[in-house]
Amino acid sequence: MSYSIVGIHTGIGKTVCSAVLCQALGYDYWKPVQAGELEATDSHFVATHVAHPHCKIHPERHRLQTPASPHYAAALEGITISAADFALPATDNGLIVETAGGLMSPLAKGFLNVDLVAQLTLPVILVSHNYLGSINHTLLTHAVLQQRNIEVQGIVFVGDATPASESFVLEATQLRHLFSIPLFAHMDAAVIATFAQNLHLAL
User: What pTM was computed for the model?
Assistant: First the structure.
């Protein structure tokens, strides 16, 4: 079973979550759109932080220079992004697909991340981060997934544990809590491997 990794916001830990899952499951990784930081992409992060020998990194469909919303970055660079650009890469392995930004971030006019997720027809793993306002962002993201009838496998919390917020989200959404990822003081392939080894995933 392959999965789309969806976040409630940008910069909340989707890539670390993706690396953990690739290490734990031995899955391939694909980020369809990378906007900015082309010298240190999310694909590069996963490649250097996942030691599992079965994990293959598939190239991005679009690599954009500008660190901005993909629709804006593409427009600046004279690139047109469309739904027809995206098909799952061929592999005999499971696949972790990481979206760019939050669920409602635009990839092009009339084409949001949620549209891409629906098009790929993979169940979603929702990544939340514990910050002030994250309950609102998490519930709104979940509501959109429900409206689009997109299957959600469960939720992953990132950051310092906040039991009051997490329990509220779990009760309100009725999502399965898959696992939590702390803010690692130091992160490398060995840290990811040790953390993944101690997970008891039931996906």
Answer: 0.95
